[in-house]
Amino acid sequence: MPQQQIKFFQVGSFAAGNRLLDPEQRTVQARMERSNTLTSGHRACQGCGEALGARYALDAAMRATEGRLIAANATGCLEVFSTPYPESSWQLPWIHSLFGNAPAVATGIAAALKVKGRTDIRVVGQGGDGGTVDIGFACLSGMFERNDDVLYVCYDNEAYMNTGVQRSGATPPAARTTTTKPVGDTNGNAFGQGKNAPLIAMAHEIPYVATATVAELHDLEAKVERAMELHGARYLHVFVPCPLGWGSASADTIKVARLAKETGLFPVFEAEHGDVVAVSKIRRRVPVEEYLRLQRRFAHLFGDPPRTDVIAQIQAIADRNIERFGLL
Ligand SMILES: Cc1ncc(C[n+]2csc(CCOP(=O)(O)OP(=O)(O)O)c2C)c(N)n1
Ligand code: SF4
Ligand SMILES: [Mg+2]
Questions:
Q1: What is the pTM of this model?
Q2: What are phi and psi of 81, to 5 degrees?
Q3: Residue 50, ligand 2, Cβ within 6 A
Q4: Cα gap 100→148, rounded to integer Å
């Protein structure tokens, strides 16, 4: 079989997409009944958690709505790798407007459908953590407080990946990004900053808030299905490792996502009308070090000598989550 060399970078090189391969070398659908909302040919990096999460989330929403779904997408990797004009990997009505206004665009679509009496068609808004918890946050909060009939999905890879790994309000403490370099007295991103978007969403007392990771795709699908049973504003926050920005191996995306949950650093739960109604328990508790060591963005913590004091601070965050959400 002829070999084609593929490099796995997002920009300025070959990209990892089926479209670059001979038809006989392309991967095929595992299940023919999949709606395949985000189909082959997109340009995400190998092992991209965001591509995986988006595909499963929107496929589940498509199934739940029997194909009557419209998506509004914020600027970010998900939009850029999926839709380099004039191509698109989306197989549903999909609109990109701006970095910060995806919740408002989704609201507008939902309002127009209501006026037209098309209550059978449902709306999803989606974006990265920067588009959601930073620049789009006012639009999102407005969508929540008006209880607009939209499911908004945030794919959290904990930085602005599309523009070269800058810090966002969801970047964890001590992580190295291009704007939080561990130089001088600093250890990467500062402690005591950032925001917890799922908890803020819950404070709006909207019908449904949930978190999920790409390590448990059936759980992610079930949460999308539950969200689509409900009307009004709903929020799903999905933890999606980014091999390029985190310096993790492409093959470790699922492992990294699982460790985020099993350490307690990323609590997986569901909430309705502001109250937690279910948590996904930790099956085998692991120290945060196991999670941190897989990612070069934390490599400065494991030098000589290792920064055990900083690692202990991160462990304290995990321990607090375990206590707060009853994860054991
Ligand atoms: C008003 C505005 N400011 C800045 C940008 C440049 N920009 C595009 S995407 C992006 C970061 C996206 O980060 P995130 O939402 O976390 O998505 P990711 O790429 O990480 O998936 C930035 C800064 C823009 N498009 N518009
Ligand atoms: S930079 Fe990260 S989020 Fe963007 S396509 Fe690559 S792996 Fe996915
Ligand atoms: Mg991001």
A1: 0.93
A2: -75, -20
A3: yes
A4: 17
